[in-house]
Structures are given as C-alpha cells and as structure tokens.
Model the fold of this input.
Amino acid sequence: MQVLSAGEVWAGADVVLKARIYPELTIAFANRVMHHSKAILSSGGDQDAARSDQTGAQSLLVPELSTSWHASIRRKFFG
Done:
C-alpha cells in the first residue's frame, strides 16, 4: 500500500484501490516475510524454507517500498 496524499481515514470511509502494480505482493505476504521468516533463518532450520524466505524477501524489494523496509529486508536477509 502507498499513501498518495495525506489525510484521515475512519471506520466506514471509502478506500479506493487505484492500481495493483505487483498483484502477488500482498500485505499478508509482506507481513509473513518481515515478521515470521526470521525464526526460520536464525534457527538454522529447514534450508529450503530459508531459501524460499530469501526469495520472498527479494521480491519485496520493489521501488515503491519505503526506504526503511528496504533497509530492514536487506539487513535481515542479506546481511
């Protein structure tokens, strides 16, 4: 998601999806990679799962993603 202009949102407000540039990159997917993949990588567990999570992390590195998320992903998954 990207905020196009500052403003307020409230329960019942209309929110319009203008475009879905990367349909495979959902908020649920980003949340899984950012908040649930670290345990797999740090535990030395399933290597296939770790590679899958690194691939997922790489797919999140799109230009529209915030600078802070880029930095977090790079630090977490790519040293």
